[in-house]
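Revision sheet: structure tokens.
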Amino acid sequence: MSSELKDYCKIIEKHLDRDTCEKVIEEIESGLEWQQNEFYDNRTEKSFAPSEDDEECEMKCDTTISSHPFLMEKIKDAFYDYVIHHNFPSVNGWAGYSPPRFNKYSENQKMCVHADHINSLFDGERKGIPMFTGMTVLNDDFKGGEFVMFPDSKNEFRPTLETGDFMVFPSNFLYPHLVAPVKEKVRYSFSSWVW
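Predicted:
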């Protein structure tokens, strides 16, 4: 196993084709309301927006879109590819993976630095810890909105992600990341987590 954290960030290029990405954007923009992204504080057991000055992205999880079954298969394939690629001796499977959570970043919106200790996946019946995060960028015609792994460190990593690219990385404190503010147009993406 590698001792370089960046080695566990894998990009599967063009995992979704451009037409599929455009269709998903059309579907998620119709009908349902977006809500502001919030983080969960285990100490207070409450969700919160990082600060009044931060314009966090908007999010929603919509399993009713017609692309949902196809996206779930593609997400599963990407996670399998990641595990096989790394041949982790301690990973012999997983209990499940989440439906895509869609994120929409309008101008000046961002996502603050965080690690994916996602507890909203677990409802009492579903139990586990998030092992891996998968993230797909659905468009690349915006300015700004860069994905930054290990921000403000000597290992800072800013991968170039194009429409349909799927990036996988461990969901733990060693992988802090953020999305920089969008400067022009709208950035769309989705994330999923394995537990």
